[in-house]
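Task: sequence design from structure.
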């Protein structure tokens, strides 16, 4: 039920993000961190509500496969103040499209499959109920983001992502690249 799902989500523990895509022969002038992973770094900052907290320890590995830049990057992040951990994997020459977010904590596990529009979850205290599945409607999130930006200019309303939040995502991306 929604209460169980909210209990798991509201106690964000460890997060694992995967953004894997088949080769598209685009954006090869930048690495996969700046092309794909930066969106997940921004999402982590939103979920963990770190704002300007860049005190994070990062270990990362990378491979150059289809370009002269990093095409595969695995990053592990730990925030020593809160003890929260995250893993991010970004690949731009995978065999299929995978876009997922997994949250694991003492209340249970949530797996959001953004390609197939499904949320799977299990409540740690209710294993007999098994894995629950919720389906959600697919949206054009890039168009929504662009429309929100457009309306913020036209109607002088706050933008969805502030300059500071965007800058923090860039700083985090630089830290990942330095860790490689």
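Answer:
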């Amino acid at each position: 039920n929604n209460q169980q799902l909210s209990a798991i989500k509201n106690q964000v523990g460890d997060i694992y993000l995967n953004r894997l895509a088949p080769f598209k022969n685009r954006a090869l002038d930048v690495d996969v961190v700046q092309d794909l992973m930066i969106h997940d770094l921004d999402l982590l900052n939103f979920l963990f509500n770190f704002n300007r907290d860049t005190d994070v320890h990062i270990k990362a590995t990378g491979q150059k496969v289809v370009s002269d830049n990093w095409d595969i990057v695995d990053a592990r992040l730990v925030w020593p103040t809160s003890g929260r951990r995250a893993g991010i994997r970004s690949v731009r020459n995978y065999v299929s499209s995978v876009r997922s977010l997994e949250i694991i904590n003492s209340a249970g596990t949530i797996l959001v499959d953004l390609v197939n529009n499904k949320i799977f979850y299990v409540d740690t205290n209710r294993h007999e109920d098994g894995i629950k599945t919720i389906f959600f409607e697919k949206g054009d999130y890039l168009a929504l983001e662009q429309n929100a930006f457009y309306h913020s200019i036209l109607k002088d309303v706050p933008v969805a992502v502030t300059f500071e939040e965007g800058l923090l995502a860039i700083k985090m991306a630089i830290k990942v690249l330095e860790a490689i």
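The mean pLDDT is 85.
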